[in-house]
Amino acid sequence: MKKDILSRFIASNVTDPKYLRDIILNFIIAGRDTTAATLSWFLYRLCKHPHIQETIAQEVREATKLKDNMSFGDFAASMTEEAIGKMQYLHAALSETLRLHPAVPMDPKICFSDDTLPDGFDVKKGDMVAYVPYAMGRMKFIWGDDAEVFRPERWLNNDGVFQNESPFKFTAFQAGPRICLGKEFAYSQMKIFSAVLLRFFRFKLVDQTKVVNYRTMINLHIKDGLHLHAFHRIG
């Protein structure tokens, strides 16, 4: 039996073409586009903050303790859970990226029944209620006066260990019963991808003066794409 998602649904006797189309599209948007968009914004931020890029590259070297002459493929295949777990600053930098550039910038919900929100506001069945992670990540009363500053250190304690924030404050993965099922997988995927790239390459923007902006879509994509130079790291 094939191991792709579509084949698994068909094998379980799910044959409604509309349902299959919707579920596969949902997996693609949630599991691919979100990660790709986040990594693009992550590389953009590293180009704007070269010292952070070098800090992460050094952390990757120390966490993996692998030989300098290892090939690209061998290094990628040798990434262990233990090594990934040691990359606390990388985890913080990815979280900081998601705070300022959440993969889903606005998230609307439909009320299934009449209800009263915690602040006393009444909603009716069928009402749409939306929250905006993009704006929330920049609110000073939530994140402090430096809310618009890219600062991974805000996620680390005095020992340099990553500290989770409440998902009701850091809403990039939603919260409560609707929290993203793929959160931990997404972090692992992004950390592996980032570690491999930063172990072998140093990145710079093609045009340092160009203003990078977002494109309004379901996901927070970079308008016109991200144009980078990649330079091989030596040693």
Automatic annotation (TrEMBL):
Kindly provide the name given to this protein in its UniProt entry. Cytochrome P450
Instruction: Name its co-factor(s).
Output: heme
Q: What biological processes does GO assign it?
A: isoquinoline alkaloid biosynthetic process
Source species: Papaver nudicaule
Q: Which family does it belong to?
A: Belongs to the cytochrome P450 family.
User: Is Heme among this UniProt entry's keywords?
Assistant: yes
Binding-site list for heme: C180
The keyword Thylakoid is assigned to this record: no
Record keywords: Heme, Iron, Metal-binding, Oxidoreductase
Q: InterPro entries from the entry?
A: Cyt_P450, Cyt_P450_E_grp-I, Cyt_P450_sf
**Pfam families referenced in this protein's UniProt entry, alphabetically:** p450
- Could you tell me the superkingdom of the organism this chain comes from? Eukaryota
Q: Which GO terms describe its molecular function?
A: heme binding; iron ion binding; monooxygenase activity; oxidoreductase activity, acting on paired donors, with incorporation or reduction of molecular oxygen
